[in-house]
Amino acid sequence: MTKKRGFEIVKKYEGKGINLPVRQTKNAAGYDIESAEDFVVPSIWKFGFFNVLKFILNKGKMDNDKLAEVQKSIKPVLVPTGVKAYMQEDEVLILANRSSNPLKRGLAIPNGIGVIDADYYNNESNEGELFVQLINFFPIDYKVKKGERLAQGIFINYLTTDEDEGGLKKRNGGFGSSGI
Ligand SMILES: O=c1ccn([C@H]2C[C@H](O)[C@@H](COP(=O)(O)OP(=O)(O)OP(=O)(O)O)O2)c(=O)[nH]1
Ligand SMILES: [Mg+2]
């Protein structure tokens, strides 16, 4: 069988009990993607609240170091999955949240959806490992268990405009690797 699309375990997590994503029901669109580790998604309030309050009381003025500290405390986390996805050149894997996540766990994907490009697979910086970007808007930290299903991956085709042959850059990572 020629390989068209699928998931593989990245080298770093070989032999570490990672499950490849599966669909739960016959016609489910999404392959459920699990956390590769126990992981804490800190509440955005826990560390940020008092700093934000100070910021407001200070009428929006804050020195750069303090501001960096505030932003860091509210930053989303990248949960490792231990898996990478291969697909055809005209395909993309969409990482969508599970609808139960905001309701039951306060977990949201702040980038809306994750876009996993076909050329992310086996990139030289992280081998193409998928990461789920999350924030926790509930007031207490959320403890993710290894193997907990956090997001779902949906493979789709994408279209390109006339005479577009693609960019010239080589993908060597994610999360801003192509520049500002
Ligand atoms: O939720 C996500 C979103 C992205 N990625 C990886 C795969 C994707 O191919 C790469 C780049 O994503 P995107 O193009 O959305 O982010 P960017 O900020 O534009 O980064 P880059 O400059 O690397 O393209 O990061 C993930 O692992 N999870
Ligand atoms: Mg990009």
TrEMBL record:
Gene Ontology molecular function: dUTP diphosphatase activity; magnesium ion binding
Domain dUTPase-like: 75-179
Hydrolase in keyword set: yes
Record field: catalytic activity: dUTP + H2O = dUMP + diphosphate + H(+)
EC number of this enzyme: 3.6.1.23
Keywords: Hydrolase, Nucleotide metabolism
Pfam families: dUTPase
Coiled-coil ranges (or none): none
First-level EC class: hydrolase
Family statement drawn from the similarity comment of this UniProt entry: Belongs to the dUTPase family.
Protein name per UniProt: dUTP diphosphatase
Organism: Companilactobacillus bobalius DSM 19674
